[in-house]
């Protein structure tokens, strides 16, 4: 039997290779826009929930109504699956889910219609608004950090919440998209901020605070004095309770932007959007129990290795870090705690038959 020359063999090999390639699933990047999600159950208020009257044309409560819980999140295609799980977890564990208003910040260049439709299909009863965020507002202020995902302009939208949300929203709970709640968000929203604090968040005073700034920062007498007289501790900006009235009155956005402008002239930090928050707020944070941000479940910013829970009770699980539960589950490389995220995953796989 004569073996055909290599050149002529490609006549037989190429169709086979093409069939093999086409049999592989498309990558996440190409299928993000076509992700489909199941409709979530509808959740109802318990009998003792206060009533909220919506009399504004924008559907938001009047400024004197204090019974609504306002939740702000960013919304984009890359993290949409995480956002959907986070929304479901908030509603499922709330005693008054009908009293929650969601405020989603999306890039002005994103397909807002698709994002709105996706949310509305899975949560047809949800009261929400989508606010466009102009990437150019912050694009020129972003310095490269240790992980590309941290350099996304939308990651800085939290700096501008007080400008983006209506003035009728006076207090808001800000949440990242890579987390789930297992407790009533009203408890977190009720955190007292006192007379001085603009925001509340769990603090971690055992962390090495000097790590978040460069030697250039600490070697400058004028810069290092920024924290003089302040009992500074690290806090994670993925879970915050923010008094927007105080933020607006103190013009905190301008303060953050000024630090970002300085960073462009001389590198004083490495970790994306976090250090400006530390510079402005650290040492003046209203306390929140650590149970409300069991963070770091995504591992570090380089390898995303599995991690255990911190000691103590848990109200919120946060996969901050490189590893995201949906990506690890899809790759069959999940960590043990990713199984706690999976029940909130609303992704509709192509293998599910529609009735």
Which properties best describe this structure?
355 residues, alpha/beta, seven-stranded mixed beta sheet, two-stranded antiparallel ribbon, 11 strands, 29% helix, disordered N terminus, glycosyltransferase activity
Q: Can you put this structure into words, describing what you see?
A:
The chain has 355 residues and is an alpha/beta fold. Helix content is 29%, strand content 13%. It has 13 helices and eleven strands. The strands form three sheets. A seven-stranded mixed β-sheet has the order 3-2-1-4-9-6-10. The protein has a two-stranded antiparallel ribbon with strand order 5-11. A two-stranded antiparallel sheet has the order 7-8. Helix 4 links the parallel strand 2 and strand 3. The N and C termini lie far apart (55 Å). The N terminus is likely disordered. It is a single-pass type II membrane protein. Pfam families: Glyco_transf_8. Keywords: Glycoprotein, Glycosyltransferase, Membrane, Signal, Signal-anchor, Transferase, Transmembrane, Transmembrane helix. GO terms for molecular function: glycosyltransferase activity. InterPro entries: Glyco_trans_8, Glycosyltrans_8_dom-fam, Nucleotide-diphossugar_trans.
